[in-house]
């Protein structure tokens, strides 16, 4: 089958990562988690003492860290200047700061170029998940999916992942991050005009995966 490029966007807690990874694995495609790249550059900023409230300071060093993403869906990897950051990018500190860093235009330009070059070089095709993949990064993708779910369902899923955390606190943090991601000036979280919207509130992960696999197969 021909190489296929699939863009999967949506807010947090909609099952984007689990779905994207499973679809890529099932169809023999590469996989790219673009949120992990924004988390990685945020981790570097924090580690280097850059003031997250200072957009000019962030912009000035946006090109500095070398970020490398491995695209095997059964074991995606991410390194910054050679250091494995898969664990450290999931901390609450990085999660609370990533929206501010990813709103800086120089950061987006830099990371978007990286994403396009990975997608171009992905033999056999790729599933790319994020917030602005269908609208900005890969507007010519063969298939665009926009995943949604009720705030309650999203908070419940996130709390399930982060054991021992309070559902209400998770829900507030998640709503705040989505508002920041949707409200920023440069390539906000948005559904592309030609994206297929899938509301996952009442669906199991397996059902969402099957739905997306079917949509990809129709395009091949
Ligand atoms: O998907 P994940 O929750 O890991 O994304 C972390 C953050 O990275 C998002 O909240 C958003 O601020 C940013 N992001 C983005 N554009 C993307 C993917 C993620 O701005 N394509």
From TrEMBL:
The keyword ATP-binding applies. The lineage of its organism: Bacteria, Bacillati, Actinomycetota, Actinomycetes, Kitasatosporales. GO terms for molecular function: kinase activity. ATP binds at residues 10-18. Its EC number is 2.7.4.25. Transmembrane segments: none annotated. Its main location: cytoplasm. Belongs to the cytidylate kinase family. Type 1 subfamily. HAMAP family: Cytidyl_kinase_type1. InterPro entries: Cytidylate_kin, Cytidylate_kinase_dom, P-loop_NTPase. Residues 6-217 form the Cytidylate kinase domain. It catalyses: CMP + ATP = CDP + ADP; dCMP + ATP = dCDP + ADP. PANTHER family: CYTIDYLATE KINASE, CYTIDYLATE KINASE/PANTOATE-BETA-ALANINE LIGASE. The keyword Transmembrane does not apply. NCBIfam families: cmk. This is Cytidylate kinase. It is found in: Cytoplasm. Keywords: ATP-binding, Cytoplasm, Kinase, Nucleotide-binding, Transferase. CDD domains: CMPK (cd02020). Signal peptide: none annotated.
């Amino acid at each position: 089958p021909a190489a296929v490029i699939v863009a999967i966007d949506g807010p947090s807690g909609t099952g984007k990562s689990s779905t994207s990874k499973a679809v890529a694995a099932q169809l023999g495609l590469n996989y790219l988690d673009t949120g992990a790249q924004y988390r990685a550059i945020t981790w570097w900023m924090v580690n280097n003492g850059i003031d997250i409230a200072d957009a000019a300071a962030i912009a000035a060093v946006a090109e500095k860290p070398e970020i490398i993403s491995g695209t095997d869906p059964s074991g995606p990897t991410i390194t910054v200047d050679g250091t494995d950051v898969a664990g450290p990018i999931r901390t609450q500190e990085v999660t609370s700061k990533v929206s501010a860093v990813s709103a800086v235009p120089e950061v987006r330009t830099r990371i978007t170029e990286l994403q396009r070059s990975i997608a171009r070089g992905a033999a056999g095709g790729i599933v790319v998940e994020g917030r602005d993949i269908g609208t900005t990064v890969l507007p010519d993708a063969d298939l665009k999916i926009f995943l949604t779910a009720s705030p309650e369902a999203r908070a419940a899923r996130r709390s399930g992942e982060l054991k021992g955390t309070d559902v209400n606190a998770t829900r507030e943090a998640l709503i705040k991050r989505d508002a920041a991601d949707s409200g920023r000036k440069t390539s906000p979280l948005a559904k592309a005009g030609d994206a297929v919207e899938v509301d996952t509130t009442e669906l199991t992960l397996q059902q969402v995966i099957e739905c997306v696999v079917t949509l990809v197969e129709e395009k091949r």
